[in-house]
Amino acid sequence: MLPALKGWVLSLTETIKQYRVMKTINDVLIIGSGLSGLSAAHFIQKFQPGLDILLLEKEKRPGGAIETFREQGFQGEWGPHGFLDNTPESRELLVDLGLDTHAERAPLENFLRYVCHQGKLEALPQNPKKLLSTPLLSFGEKIRILGDLWKKPLPPGQTVSQWAEYRFGKGVLPLVDAAVTGTFAGDLELLSIDAVMPGVRRLEAEFGSVLKGLKAKKKKAAGSGPLPSMMNFPEGMDYLISTLAQGKNILFNSTVTGIEKRNGTWVVLTTDTSWQAKTLIMALPVNQTLKLLSPLHTPPVSSIPVAKILNIVMGFGKSAKVPYGFGYLAPEKENRFCLGAMFTSHMFPNRSPQGSVLLEALIGGRRHPERLELTDDILIQQAYEDLRQLMDLPEPPLFSKVLRPKHGIPQLEMGHPELLEWRRDLEKECADIYICGFGWDGIGMNEMIKAAKKVAHALVAGGLSADTEKPQVKPVYF
Ligand SMILES: Cc1cc2nc3c(=O)[nH]c(=O)nc-3n(C[C@H](O)[C@H](O)[C@H](O)COP(=O)(O)OP(=O)(O)OC[C@H]3O[C@@H](n4cnc5c(N)ncnc54)[C@H](O)[C@@H]3O)c2cc1C
Questions:
Q1: For the segment 299-319, what is each residue's pLDDT rounded down to a tens digit?
Q2: Fold category of 21-64+242-302+413-461 in CATH
Q3: Is the pLDDT of residue 355 over 80?
Q4: Which ligand 1 atom is nearest residue 257's CA?
Q5: Whose alpha carbon is nearest atom 8 of ligand 1?
Q6: Which residues make up the CATH 1.10.3110.10 domain(s) of the chain?
Q7: For residue 66, how far is its CA from the centre of ligand 1 (angstroms)?
Q8: Is this structure's pTM higher than 0.90?
Q9: How many CB atoms are closer than 10 A to CB 269?
Q10: Contact call for residues 474 and 86 (beta carbons, < 8 A)
Q11: Which of 302, 331, 391, 416 would be a feasible disulfide site paired with 195, CB 3.0-4.6 Å?
Q12: Ligand 1 pocket, 442 CB below 6 A?
């Protein structure tokens, strides 16, 4: 095409795009109707009823990564299997929705969690007394943990593994590995300690030692109650989503393809419509937000790594003897096929037909994406082989299904703190935009709800104030 003609066609396309019908002027436009978007809408409605809120969702259902699996009497999860009842924002949300008494709770105090150690399942110590007798660490490794008391705080820019080894010694690395496998399906040699555990880093800086900080914190919180519980719902995790979505104005099958600011108003383009709004909330996983906002403000990276996992839902008959507890995790050095497994029917009742046991085995993660390419038959066979070396499973599963979630887990690796700076700058520079969602301030459901409430608060108050809240220590209950 001649250059002049090409230029004319391009400008015509731009003109058409600009004059596409502007559907509505909403007060608040939320992109994404996963847990983050729905929670943000909930809290805005609560703080300022009557605002006109629209959620744009590219799929034909809400919930994003959250979806329950049901087949032949077995009930598993495509995404999250549980979240702890120790976060005030999540407790508030459940009370608002009338779900706090409906939720099923598996108290951590009553359930053992196991770590694979030298080819055997060993119970994870639940308290410091049990730590003394655990075979998971040698005597020398236990003593070395106390070395933290004398170690100077490390400067920023450490991986989880560098930091943990420096403070507590090499012996703790398999346990830390199990923790980041159970939460991020991640690699402790790549994750950033500043991004993953900002609260622990704060204790280290404030008290000169993590152990001293934890002790001071415990003293302050004396009498604060028992260990938290893991929660789900009898109908599965997507019950939270269907309850949250009730009464919300969600437009499904609406993929946002571009975002512009015209004359002080946000213009959001979907494949067939332009939407105008005074205020915009991005409630998407980090990479989707980066893609849409990079034309407005160049980010330090175009994307962050995402760890994908798959879940094999396995039902076993009466002969199966699965140790009592939540499940187990396997550190990389154990060289197992599965990252771990959840003992779902122990945690929550009625997840499998009477007399059977439901296990959900996790495979892949940041270190083994190649396993996601295996066929279902091979996956089931190898997972069964792996599991039966660890527990008494004399007969193969009577039910098995490989779930391949399309959502992965964003990895908070080195460089994540700079990405958070970029977000702060962008929110300051372009007024009336708020960013929350999967992988910004964490990856767990509690973190999503907390960040969504913060955004709702800021929006109603007329802007984000300087972040004065100190990062909190997150309990790692994997
Ligand atoms: C396999 C897996 C296991 C997990 N296990 C746990 C667990 O046990 N406990 C726990 O606490 N957390 C767990 N999580 C994390 C938890 O699922 C997330 O914290 C939470 O679901 C993230 O919600 P979100 O709304 O931020 O993102 P998402 O769930 O990703 O929702 C984003 C929504 O935006 C939509 N969208 C994306 N792009 C566009 C676009 N361009 N236009 C319009 N819409 C768009 C998507 O379709 C989606 O509906 C797990 C996650 C995964 C993937």
A1: 999 999 999 999 999 999 999
A2: FAD/NAD(P)-binding domain (3.50.50)
A3: yes
A4: 41
A5: 80
A6: 147-220
A7: 6
A8: yes
A9: 17
A10: no
A11: 416
A12: no
Q: Is the pLDDT of residue 197 over 90?
A: yes
Report the pLDDT averaged over residues 221-242: 85
Q: Write the CB contacts of 469 (distance below 8 Å, at least 6 apart in sequence).
A: none
DSSP assignment of 234-302, as one string? TT-THHHHHHHHTT--EE-S--EEEEEEETTEEEEEESS-EEEEEEEEEES-HHHHHHHHTTTS--SSS
Ligand 1 centroid distance, CA of 206 (Å): 34
Provide the CB-side half-sphere exposure for 213 (13 A, CA).
Answer: 17
C-alpha–C-alpha distance, residues 33 and 63, integer Å: 6
Ligand 1, atom 34, residue with closest C-alpha: 32
CATH architecture of the domain with range 147-220: Orthogonal Bundle (1.10)
Q: Check pocket membership of 437 for ligand 1, CB cut-off 6 A.
A: yes
Q: Please give the class, per CATH, of domain 82-109+309-404.
A: alpha beta
Helix, coil or strand: residue 101: coil
Would you say the CB of residue 290 lies under 6 angstroms from ligand 1? no
How do residues 456-475 score in pLDDT, each as one tens digit? 999 998 766 655 566 666 65
Which atom of ligand 1 has the smallest separation from the CA of 38?
25
Q: What pLDDT does 367 receive?
A: 97
CB distance 409 to ligand 1 below 6 Å: yes
**Whether 341 contacts 361, CB under 8 Å:** yes
Long-range contacts of 370-373 (CB under 8 A, 24+ apart): 371/337, 372/308, 372/309, 372/310, 372/404
Residue intervals of the chain classified under CATH 3.50.50.60 are 21-64+242-302+413-461
23: pLDDT strictly greater than 90 = no
